[in-house]
Amino acid sequence: SGAVEGECQKVYDFIGNPLPIPQSAQKAAEWVSGQLSAGLLVSYGSVPGHSSDNIAWSFDQGATMVVFSQIPERLSFARLIADKMISLQEEDGLWKAGYGGISLTEKDNKIVGNIATVARGQVEVGLKTGDGKYIQSAKKAGDAIITKYWKSAGSDKGYFTGGFEGNQNAIWTSTENNARAGIFFYRLWKATG
Q1: Residue 164, SS3?
Q2: Is the Cα torsion angle 53, 56, 58, 63 positive or negative in sign?
């Protein structure tokens, strides 16, 4: 809304951002778009004096699908990532935490919040394109999240565990991961009724 944009502009003016909000958003979108490699976004860009590990974290793919699906001139970009993530979706409906790059054991983990963010991205791309394959991918992920991660804590309470670390279901849980799952399931419900 105009009020929110006005308040954000005040913050940008205070910190000395030389670009108005729409141009700042455009510059960020241009940089993100430049990170595409083999259908995925490289999560860290190289800057002089620092190297990039070229890993593509799943959360970054999902978050970009969510945002870019809402921008008409970026929808095809979101769809490209969505298609790549469908090709990487495992038989059980899940995605790994990351792909490519250096061999980090953390990238093989399957974290609820990351999976939910990718699945939400699939929902948003599906809603904007009308292509049912994205909603189907999201449903498959949702079924897996419920089956593998839901822990009952009484008749009307429960939570999602953090995910799988290696082959072990994590014993931890977090507000962040449960919030991401909640947002995803809400959007899936709104999309499918």
Answers
A1: strand
A2: positive
Residue 145's closest CA among 126, 165, 162? 162
Contacts with 83 (C-beta within 8 Å, 6 or more apart), sequence order: 39
Q: Is 82 helix (H, G, I), strand (E, B) or coil?
A: helix
Three-class SS of 15-71 = HCCCCCHHHHHHHHHHHHHCCEECCEECCCCCCCCCCCCCCEEHHHHHHHHHHHCCC
Query: Angle, nearest 10°, between helix axes 112-129 and 175-192?
Result: 20
More confident residue, 55 or 103: 55
Encode pLDDT of 6-31 as tens digits.
Answer: 665 565 565 555 555 567 777 788 88
Integer-rounded Cα Rg, in Å, for the chain is 18
Of the candidates 108, 112, 2, which has an alpha carbon nearest to the alpha carbon of residue 55? Answer: 108
Residue 86 tokens, joined: 């469908």
Amino acid identity, residue 173? T
Coil, strand, or helix at residue 87? helix
Q: Give the helix/strand (H/E) hosting 165.
A: strand 163-165
Measured CA to CA, the distance from residue 193 to residue 177 in angstroms comes to 23
Residue with tokens 């620092």: 50
* Reported pTM: 0.82
Tokens of 99: 């792909």
